[in-house]
Amino acid sequence: MSDARRLLRPWWIASHVVVTALLVLTINLGFWQLRRLDTRQDYNATVTTRNNEPVVPLAEALIALAAGRPIDDLRYVQVWVEGTWDLDREVLLVNRSQDGVPGVHVLSFLHVDDIAPASGLVVDRGFVPRPLQLVGDPNAWAPVSRAALLRGSLDVFQSGERSYEREVDRIDRTALEARWDVGLAPMWLRVAESTGRDTWPAPTPIVGLGDGRHLSYAVQWFIFTLVGVVGYPLVLIRVHRSSDSRSGGGPNPSIPEWDAPVA
After folding, report:
1. Which residue would you say has higher pLDDT here, 11 or 112?
2. Residue range 70-97: mean pLDDT, rounded
3. Domain extent for 109
4. Co-location of 10 and 107 in the same domain
5. How far is CA 179 from CA 92, 106, 139, 172, in A?
6. From the CA atom positions of the chain, what is the Rg in Å?
7. Helix runs in 54-172, H state only
8. pLDDT for 51
């Protein structure tokens, strides 16, 4: 069998297939990260644009939604609303963090008169550190007064809430309507200013406005691809040359040549 055909043995064929598959995988992972970067930048642009638009009344935004405007078009739109807090209807959104500190978000019910057929709005009032929350005194983050005039950004509900007592893992409209026995507006509000008596709750910014690490991840995957494209052929060349030397194509470097003894 010729030396070149050694690389067509079953073991080598399997190696070629595996390496080729890995190269295809790393290339696709690199482009996938670039697509995620594009999506992230589009998201950032949308959030920035909507936050710079004029603040509108909540009722106006909900009328547009009822008229057929897609709900995603109203996400992050800035609104103002006037209402009354219902302090008996409040839950804590767990597993949150802010500035590296673990904690919860306070979700409260705001009664609003002019958004029928709903009777009120879910408001994310902001962040409370976990140690303060564990003390268990709601007065530490209670509203300054029952009447409220709020400004904030709209966001969409999720589904599939899992809860324990007053703690929930997501903002689920259906679950909250059942828990509180009220009708809720089809979007919830993230407040932009503090509503508490003191520091807490701290307003929570819209997260994720950076580009993330998608570009660096893409570069890493493309480097892996380059290593494979360049490195694997070099391995094959080395193996081929090694086979040549063992088959008599030249002196075997592993066997030293000794000088003949002088007569």
Report:
1. 112
2. 92
3. 77-191
4. no
5. 13, 16, 22, 11
6. 32
7. 58-66, 130-135
8. 76
